[in-house]
């Protein structure tokens, strides 16, 4: 990643998936900038950014297009061009991340789609204008987009739309040498995940039923992100790369599996 510069969106603390990704990129020589949501997070994000030798942090609420415009104007003033963006952002009312999907309210449906789906498209629009010699765009998704998972509800519907957007964006921007991919991470204990009902049970289930018989770490997601954001991934776009200890390939575990 030497000589590459990129933006990491969605760092909240040292448990964030964005932190695992930022560490992997910085270790391999990338120069990073971070955006955070709201002044309150700055005191957490700035010290983390500084640990990676990056004091460049910008406030940005992705629900506010003026705030996104300002972020990319600031980045353009700072660097002129950009090589990659990591979008590790999602949000829904936690009261609707339990119970039944069918009870989802219209307001929360719209808000979840806006922050968790449209924001990625809005980011790609702005980032692509700063990617004159190609680039790589990455977002984070979850298996609840593909199959029904307990309590994931409206977020599963949002992630399905996000995964579809990745494919459309890959096609739109591919001719400019800009790649667009998603990582579908297995469950990881983070601030956002703590809002999902029975999350500890979901983690235990994945640990027992994944081919690797364990959960994944932020660092493992970071390594996969390094592949997609660097030249190692130069032939890959429109992809949804599962970093989930293989959970997505399992239909049913064999009856003689050792830990049943
Ligand atoms: P996290 O809480 O550390 O990160 C979520 C981030 O989204 C926070 O930094 C928060 O500030 C940001 N955010 C929310 N609303 C925003 C807004 N309006 N403007 C700007 N930022 C906003 O949790 P995480 O688990 O690291 O989540 C990162 C991404 O990974 C999310 O898209 C999440 O759905 C996805 N993901 C998480 C898991 C998991 O198990 N933790 C699994 C698969 C995918």
CATH class: Alpha Beta
Bound molecules: nicotinamide-adenine-dinucleotide
Low-pLDDT segments, ≥5 res: none
CATH superfamily caption? NAD(P)-binding Rossmann-like Domain
Q: Provide the domain count.
A: 1
Q: Examine the secondary-structure arrangement and name the CATH architecture.
A: 3-Layer(aba) Sandwich
Beta-strand residue percentage: 5-15%
The percent of residues in helical segments reads 40-55%
Question: DSSP helix count?
Answer: 7
- Major sheet: order of its strands? 3-2-1-4-5-6-7
- CATH topology (level 3) name: Rossmann fold
Radius of gyration: 18 Å
What is the general shape?
Answer: globular
Distance between the termini: 43 Å
Catalytic activity: a 2,3-saturated acyl-[ACP] + NAD(+) = a (2E)-enoyl-[ACP] + NADH + H(+)
GO molecular function, one term: enoyl-[acyl-carrier-protein] reductase (NADH) activity
EC number: 1.3.1.9
Pathway: Lipid metabolism; fatty acid biosynthesis
Q: Would you mind describing this structure in some detail?
A:
- Pathway: Lipid metabolism; fatty acid biosynthesis.
- It catalyses: a 2,3-saturated acyl-[ACP] + NAD(+) = a (2E)-enoyl-[ACP] + NADH + H(+).
- This is Enoyl-[acyl-carrier-protein] reductase [NADH].
- The chain has helices at residues 17-27, 39-51, 65-79, 106-128, 153-174, 199-209, 218-229, and strands spanning 5-9, 31-36, 57-59, 84-87, 135-141, 178-185, 240-243.
- With 260 residues, it is of the alpha/beta class.
- The protein has one domain (5-246): Rossmann fold, CATH 3.40.50.
- A seven-stranded parallel beta sheet has the order 3-2-1-4-5-6-7, sandwiched between helices.
- Helix 3 (65-79) runs parallel beside helix 4 and helix 4 runs parallel beside helix 5.
- The structure holds nicotinamide-adenine-dinucleotide.
- Nicotinamide-adenine-dinucleotide is lined by residues 10-12, 16-18, 37, 41, 61-63, 88-91, 115, 140-142, 185, 187-188, 190-193.
